Structures are given as structure tokens and as C-alpha cells.
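Researcher: Please generate the 3D structure of the following complex. Treat every line as part of one assembly.
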Amino acid sequence: MYHALLSNRYLTTRVIPFIAVGAVALCVALVVIVVSVMSGFLDMLKRSGRTLMGDVVISTSYAGIPHYGRLIDRIVALPEAAAATPLVETLGLLRLPFPHGDRKDLATVQVWAVDPATFASVTGFDETLWWHPPEPGKESKLSEHDLRRQVPAQLREDGLALRDSRDGRPGIVPGIHVSRENRRLADGSYAPSSLEWWMPLHAVSLTLVPITGAGKLAEPKEVVFPVVNEFQSGVYQIDRQRVLIPLEEGQKILRLGEATLTDPGDLDDEGRPRVIGVDPAKVSRVLVRAADGVSPQALREAVDRAYLDFLEELWLDDGALVKPPPRAAVLVLTWEQLLRDLIGPVEKEREMMRILFSIVYFVCAGLILSIFWAIVQEKTRDIGILRSVGAPRAGIIWMFLRYGLVIGVVGSLVGLVLAEAVVRNINAIHDAIGRDAPRWAWITSFAAAAAAVVAGSWYAWRGRVLPALLWAIASFALAVIGTGLLLHHGTLIWDPSVYYFSRIPNEVDRITAAITLVGAVVFSVIGASIPAAKAADTDPVRALRYE
Amino acid sequence: MSERARSASIPQGAGADPQPLLEATEVCKTYRLGRVEVPVLQGATLRVEPGEWVAIVGASGSGKSTLLHLLGALDRDDHGGTRILHRGRSLASMSNLERNRFRNGIVGFVFQFYHLLPELNVLENAMLSPMVGWSLRPGLFWAGVGGAGAALGAASAVATSGSWGATLAPAAVVAATALAAGAGASIAGVAAAEVSAWRARWSRESAQTRERATALLHRFGLGHRLKHRPRELSGGERQRVAIARALLNEPQVLLADEPTGNLDERTGGEILDLIAAEHQRGMAVVMVTHDAAVARRATRRLTLRDGRVLCPET
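Model: Done. Output below.
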């Protein structure tokens, strides 16, 4: 009982334990915040990869995969697959409606020509469409000034169909950052710099360069598309570069659509190559989504087998004059493999951070050790008194270990709460840092600094050095903070063009939090154990002679 | 003296001629100051009978306090305590637990500089000896809890390693099991210590001890000071709290080291009156002092000079 009583009193009658708790809390919060943001970044990367391209991707060269409909039928019949969609990928030049000097602004874009009906079932396309009114009951989630409150509901349908419902023309859906006029606001929404430059009001012209069967560049083709919506995937590079157009349009422009097949060696009476059949439409990629509970790896193996069966079927089909590319010319990869170059370094970076920040545990241990060493020195006489009334060495050790345990547990819990609060609100904090400091903040700071000067002077006048010094330090710190706030004009720390995502991940990594908590407690106890052992070894007679 | 103090686990003297309460024979104690050896006691002999009041006088540095510490098992003589006996049993033959119980229940210390714990109030300081005493009881129940925790940890480690058995080396399974058992025992031990503290805090015995301590402090004129911290008390009041702490476990002998050395004459007299009153109730007192007037309150006076007890006088 005396252990609990004394260790609680030692904890609550001094400032040092509170400083120790604060230090442990800051150490724990530091580790959890850094690793959580990195883990969240990694998770977002993986999630977005899957949202953008499904689970498995079949891709080939510019020659494309003919008869892809039959391949997709085979894949969809697999129990491992839920859906599949064809697409054509190429690069293009987009002329934007707003001026850039004397001319219109131009952007180099990655073009995905997709089949809108199946594309949404494989990817999260419908969730990424930005311009549509909020669903009933979710209006309150949008700020009052959010432009989405005013846009017509038809935009969503138009975006999903990649078609302008007013005149039936095929439309284009660019990423939200393709237009440099779109600005991300503090509440996470987007708005054009002026309503005049709101993209769905305009049409853009897209220039693509087809490639001939011989692999040479053909005449570039420019097609005008009305902008029917914009998408926001959350991955800045994608939102900055990608545009979506209907598959048939893409195939038509790139000469990948269905055509007559001729034999250049067999000329008709008019000297033209004789038509020998049909050259089927082709795509450069097929995206596949896994059925529930099926891993991307299992799906990849099933799709791989399906492609081999597809190859065999087509090679045996005499009616199919154009054969699909051999297996060696085709890549069948999971989304993780496709993003390996990006995910791998981030994973390694996170582990490096974990290891580096583990040093914080030693900081905890050293901190507790030094504090306890001082306390044991100070409490030498108490130890002698306790020994004189029969307290065993084990009791003395437990008294100090308990002290360390309480500091470790309380400090870790406070640290976790702090980390949770910071991580959850990290975007709000970032946005606040990104704005000018409010006037009241620096005025309050300077006022508090002035009050601290007065308090310090009063103590100095009464000859109290320590409180005078503490108030002087406080006034200096407050004045520095006030000056910093006054001079602060917004700093963009998380630049989306650098950090890939437009928002900072704000989920606490539970496993890291649990490991950090246990680590901080264990190292706090280890830190306390050395002074505790010293206390137990204290000679009671010598301890009692101190006076 | 209470039944509890009398029935403490220290063996009592047997036969019609009871053994002396405390006995020191030719006790030597040498301190080492760097490379220099300083002999303090060089064959001091002393016998304390139950219920007597012995005063040991001597000049500063004569070894009075050292002798008192040796008698109270707070220190060991050069022979490891073999020459100091409690009711015929040498202190050297006691286990650590028995020595702790001896200091807690058989003897009570009072020091010149009071030695109160500044974080505890008057009542808590007075209750320190009983509180320490509660932690010295055999903890079979809690040892069982700790063992059960260890067993549970080991069992869960074995069960878990079953599924990993194919991939883990046997040494890793053994290490994991030992680690889990240690962690289980540690957690169970911590839980047991905390539960034990709470049980002691709210037990009937705790309430009774609190009542006894309150009554004793009232008797010592400190009824209005129960919640005060030592720094808020005068020297005399502090020494009264220290005496209350020494007496609350109703020891067989009070070992007082210059109990009035830091007090004025009147306050010192009051303290001696308190000790005399306890002596009247049958408690033995061994008091060291350099003040002849104080020593005269004792029933027997011994002089310590050159590390030896020289002049037994009554």
C-alpha cells in the first residue's frame, strides 16, 4: 500500500513528473503522427491504384488486342472476376478554352478512351466525377459556396455516359487539375478562378497522332469534344494529366476501330489491294476487377490462363484473320505490380522512418532515467526511513518502477490522444497554416507578452529571481510567437503537385500506435529500473545520516 | 503490547529463565573512509532486558548511533550480526524477510532529526509502519495469481506457436513461450500489487489502524494536526509524530537516537515524558544521548568510550 501512496505523492507533488509525462507524450505523438501519415499515404496510394485501374491489367503495345470482346467474355465468365473493361491509352495535346498569352492554353495529356458502361463497373469512375449536385440529405457536407450546389444534375449522367445529352455529341471528362484555372479551396472543394472558365461550359480540342500498322506516325487528328464533367481521383498526377473520351472515338481517331482487311500482295482489277475480310477493333488494355474475396494475385493467374485459352481459340479459328499478340508480347499485372516503382520506395521509406523514430524510445528511457536519478538522490533519506521501518528492497524497487510505469502509461495515452487529434485534423491544421494569421491571434500574443513583462517586473521588484526569470522567458516566447503570427502570410506545406495526393492522409495507424504505446511504457520502466535498483542498494544508515 | 507484536514470527526465548530481549556481545564495527579504516565499536557488550530503559551516553563519534543501528538490524557488525541476539536468536540467522519484520514489528526507531516523509501528512506518517507491515505478509495468494498469469502466458504462446510451428524454429518457440510467460507473470504481478494496495487501503484492518493512529496522535496532542504536512509542524510536534510512527506497531523495544537532541529543554522534557509513559506500559527503551540530564530518566545508564561499553551504572 505504501508503494502506491508514496509513488502517487511523488508524482503529484512535483513538476518534474508532469514534464516527463509531457515529454513521453510528445515522443509518442511524434512517432504516431509521422508513421500514420506515411502509412496513410501508402494506403491511399494502394486504394487509388485499385480505384483507377481495377485489380488486374492486361496491356500490350500500340498494335492492340483484337477480338477483345471475346477475351472479355472469357474473363467475365471466370469465378475470380467481377467485371472487365477495354480501353485505349495514348498521349495527346489538349487545347483549353482560356487564353495563354496570344494563344489558347495547351496541355499534354494522357488519353484514356474507355467504354463508359463497363469502365465504371471496374474502376471507381462514378465516384470520382466531381460536378454533380449533392445527394439528398448530404447537402450539409458541402460548404455554402461550393459550386456543386448549383450545377445541373444532368452533368453526372453526361459524365458517366461521356456524351453531351443536349446534342448527343461524344464528350470528354478531364481530370480536375488539367485546367489550370481550377483552384482547390480550403474546404477541399474546387472552383474556377472565374465562372467564365468553368470547364463544363466549354468545348476543348484534342489532338491525337494515330500510328499506322507499320508503326509509323500518321497525320495528327484534331477533334473537338464538349467537356461534360471533370473527375477528381485524389492523385494529383492523374488529375493533372488524364482525360477520358468514349472508346469508339478513341479507336476511330487512332485507327484502331473495325476496318476492312486487305491483302497488299493481291491487287484487284483496279490495282487496289483486294479486301479479304474484316480487321477487328482493337484496344491497348483490358482492366479487370476481382470478385469479392479474391486476391489480385489469384485473379492475375486466372486472367493469365484465360488469355492463353483466348489465344488458342483465336489461333484455331480460321475465320479470325487477325490474331491477338502472343503471350510474350502481353503484360498481365496486378495493380500493385504496376505501381511497384511507386509503392516500393514509399514502403521502404516508412520502415526507415519507423526505425529512425524508434530512437525516441531511448529518449523516453533516458529522460525517465535522468529524472529518476535526480529523484532517488533527493529521496535518499526517505529510502532510509522506509528501510528503518522494515520496507524490503523489492518494495523500494517496485515503488520507483511503479512511478516509471505510471509516467510511461499516462504519457503514452496522452501522446496517443494528441496524435489522434493532430492526425484527424491535419488537413484543417494545414489549411490554417496556409492562411494569414488572424489579427486577434497576434494581438492576443503581444498583449500576453506585455502582461508577462509586467508580472516579471513585479517579481523582480520584490527580489524574486526565479519567477521573474520565468515570466521574462514567457514574455520573450510570446513576443516571438506574436511576431511570427504577424509576419505569417500562409505557407503551403503539403503541395499537391509534390506530394501526389491533394489531401494529407488523416487516419491513425493503429498497429504503430499500439507498438509505440507498448514501447514507450517498456522503455519508461527500463529507464526507471536503474535508479530503482540504486535506491534499493542505498545503505539505510548512510541515508539516515544525511542531514 | 499487542498480541500481534508478541506473536511475530521471530522465535521467543524458551525456558523458565527468559533470554534477554536484545544482547550484543563483543560487537565490533569498522567503517572504511577511502583507504582508511576507522574502528567505531571495538568489542561493545550490552544486554537489554524486557521492559527496562537503558540510556547509552558518550561523546560525539563514540559509536552510540552505530550501536543502536546494529541493535535494530539496520546495519551489520563486522561479524555479520552473529554477535547480536534477539531473545537468544542471532540477527545473522534471520532471512531478509525476518529482518524486515524485525525492524517493522519488534523494534521502533526514533531519530534526532525526526525523519518524517515530507509528502505524507501527520496521520499517514504515523501509519507508515503498519502500512509497510502489510506488505511483509506471505503473499501466497498473489504468488498464485502471478503463477497463473505466467502459466496462461506460456499456454497462449504454445497454442499460438502451434499454428506457426512449421515455420518457427523450436528455439524461437521456447523463447516466445518464456517471453509470454514472463510478460504474463509481470502483468499479473503488477495487477496483484495494485489490487493488494487497494484491498489494504479499504480493508477493515486499515480502518482500525487509522483509528488507533488517530487516537494515539490525539493522546500526543496532535489531534488538530492530522492532515498537516511535516513542514507545517514545530520540532516538538515532528518528534511526537515520529514517536507515534515508532509506537503504532507496538514494538517490544524503542530505539531512540538522541530524541531530544534537536529540541529545547521544555519540549525535550515533554518528549521524554511520552517515552516514559510508554515505558511504564512495559515497553523496553534503548536511548542514546550525550546529555547526562536526559540519561538520568533511564533505569540503567551505560557509557560508551573508545568503542567499548565502560561503566555500567544503575
